[in-house]
Amino acid sequence: MxxxxxxxVALFFIAMFPTFTQAAEPAPIEAFLSSSTRLMVxxxxxxxxxxxxxxxxxxxxxxxxxxTVVFMTNGDGYPxxxxxxxxxxxxxxxxxxxxxxxxxxxxxxxxxxxxxKTHDVIFLGFPDAGLSILRSxxxxxxxxxxxxxxxxxxxxxxxxxxxxxxxxxxxxxxEIERVMLRFxxxxxxxxxxxxQHPDHNSTYYFLERxxxxxxxKYPYLKPAVFTFVIHYNGWPVNQEARSGxxxxxxxxxxxxxxxxxxxxxNSREVDLKRRAIVKYRSQMVMLNRFLLSFDKSxxxxxxxxxxxxxxxxxxxxxx
Length: 319
Prior knowledge:
Elements: H1 2-16, E1 38-43, H2 48-62, E2 66-73, H3 79-86, H4 93-114, E3 121-126, H5 131-137, H6 169-183, E4 187-191, H7 198-217, E5 224-228, E6 261-264, H8 267-278, H9 281-292, E7 298-303
Parallel strand pairs: 1-2, 1-4, 2-3, 4-5
Antiparallel strand pairs: 5-7, 6-7
Helix pairs in contact: 2-8, 3-9, 4-8, 6-7
């Protein structure tokens, strides 16, 4: 009986909040772009937002809309990058923290290149390479997660959105809710659940939970949601790299009845996106070819399927 009631409730909210349902013929992402657009981009690490939506960010700003970019982590849990940066085989806690600070500064430089103001960039400061662990731990936690790299167990005071927040699923969802409620986006984009990087699909998970909670409490907050992919079986490194080449969808990507929507970029948008990508110098040293494989004449997005997490509803535990 409880299962039936839960399903009925879930179906009720699906009917009430069409953002999360699958339309028969989804509108292209351009349909959501105008001077009234309020775009919020959730990026797992500094650089993902530029790779996946650097052109979209420019397009919204050009139309007179507003853009806020939210970085889930500072990208400080990347041992190979820190080892190369500091020429050491055993990075210290301080070196991991300094690496995260460098990636923050690179992100701000990249956002300035795309036209995003510094005050419209938010760093949540949650643990790089730890989001999937927070996700699997569920909401109940005896102690906060501690990063094995920075040894931190909570966001820095300057990054903390919710007072006394620590590294746990509950507080991360609470911080996402808080920043969304402040900005009230009409359009949200982030990495999708099919993205094979654990921090990327976990970012989607936490955003989805926050959106479900918010729309229950604030029915007027119903942004359109689109996702993009960064990591999927080595894509798109082997795609055509000539000037003007297009970004084609990953082969064998599980679309589940959805359709890709492509945002065609003009020459200026392509140029500024490329300039923003190379601002991530610490990543270019490690991943030059991969990052520049997103330097294409279009960007790919997919409408969100929302509550399609299996069965009739969603699991708050995340296991």
